[in-house]
Specification:
The chain has 333 residues and is of the alpha/beta class. The protein has one domain: Rossmann fold (3-Layer(aba) Sandwich), CATH 3.40.50.720. The strands form 5 sheets. It has a 4-stranded parallel beta sheet, with helices on both faces. A 3-stranded mixed beta sheet has the order 11-8-13. A two-stranded parallel ribbon has the order 1-2. α1 runs parallel beside α2. Bound molecules: uridine-5'-diphosphate.
Length: 333
């Protein structure tokens, strides 16, 4: 029910799947359920629980009988993971192990896992392919790399498993309705929600972390991918797993990199608002450039991103301007 999960739920419901959402609401809101209902006319089942809670997880499996699991649950703030690594290992790694144990017990052996481009760390050669070295530069990335390894070991130990490891690049944008989008707790860590909160007047100024990177304009370059494209990637992966067992590992990105300044400009055009910024110190752990080679996903899944930067900024702004305080605001609809 977080940012990515809520968008994937919509596509699953629209495709006719039954959906149960398990979430401890640590960084999400039950309002999402109403919004999903408004968009799809269907209400997913909801279990307010923690993925580390074996007994409640088992109860949910007994009640819902899933055919497959999409595992989004986890903490994702890089800076916080450096300050409090144990919390990240507990929530992300332990949570995944508990989930896998329960899946194993109930013979549910299809899993799509939310991994991240940050498993690659500082890669010299762009674009990044799936065979690039795994060398995360922070505890958050380590947790994703560890879970990926656990999944690989599990698949080798038992041919009955079908597992997709989806390495997300940088999600941006929102559902076209403006009813759901990213609603981070507190000050956003990521660029797209930070920019949109500056544009809507909730934050004063964007701090650009570093203006002296070896990039065309000196600011960091990333592969921003529309959240609906990313969401479609999950359905393609599920579809793939219904015919194939073993381990699938794919990048989900567009193959294009944009700098922070390019993002700011595109967002100003989409929103008609000024986004004041200042160049600040580099953020520790950041790399200069990261963008995907997404060709494996196209080859194996027939999946390709179809939405560009303008659509991302347009939809991000639509969501932010209709919901200036995220799900906490009274609804503008
Ligand atoms: N960034 C920035 N200011 C912010 C947040 C991010 O300049 O307030 C930059 C960051 O240094 C990186 C890019 O925006 O170059 C994307 O950062 P984000 O945290 O969104 O994703 P990451 O690629 O680090 O996972």
């Amino acid at each position: 029910m977080g940012y990515i999960g809520s968008h994937v739920s919509i596509l699953l419901l629209e495709a006719g799947h039954d959906v149960a959402i398990l979430d401890n609401l640590s960084n999400s809101s039950v309002v999402v359920l109403d919004r999903i209902k408004q968009i799809t006319t269907r209400l997913p089942e909801f279990y307010n629980m923690d993925v580390r809670d074996t007994s409640n997880l088992e109860l949910a499996f007994i009640k819902f009988h899933p055919d497959a699991v999409i595992h989004f649950a986890g903490l994702k703030a890089v800076g916080e993971s450096v300050i409090d690594p144990l919390r990240y290992y507990e929530w992300n790694v332990m949570g995944s192990v508990v989930l896998l144990q329960v899946m194993n017990k109930y013979q549910v052996k299809k899993l799509v896992f939310s991994s991240s481009a940050c498993v690659y760390g500082d890669v010299a050669e762009m674009p990044i392919t799936e065979i690039s070295c795994i060398a995360p530069t922070n505890p958050y990335g380590q947790t994703k790399a560890m879970i990926e390894q656990i999944l690989a070991d599990l698949v080798s130990s038992d041919q009955g498993w079908s597992v997709a490891r989806l390495r997300y690049f940088n999600p941006a944008g929102a559902h076209i309705s403006g009813l759901i989008g990213e609603d981070p707790n507190g000050i956003p860590n990521n660029l797209p929600p930070y920019i949109s909160q500056v544009a809507v007047g909730k934050l004063d100024v964007l701090k650009i972390f570093g203006g002296d990177y070896p990039t065309p304009d000196g600011t960091g370059v990333r592969d921003y991918i529309h959240v609906m494209d990313l969401a479609r990637g999950h359905l393609s992966a599920l579809n793939y797993l219904s015919n194939e067992s073993g381990l699938l590992t794919v990048n989900l990105g567009t193959g294009h990199g944009y700098s922070v300044l390019e993002m700011v400009k595109a967002f100003e055009i989409a929103s008609g608002k000024k986004v004041p910024y200042r160049i600040a110190e580099r953020r520790s752990g950041d790399v200069a450039i990261s963008f995907a080679d997404p060709s494996r996903a196209e080859q194996l899944l027939g999946w390709k991103a179809s939405l560009g930067l303008n659509e991302m900024c347009r939809d991000q702004w639509h969501w932010q301007s209709k919901n200036p305080n995220g799900y906490r605001s009274s609804c503008a609809y």
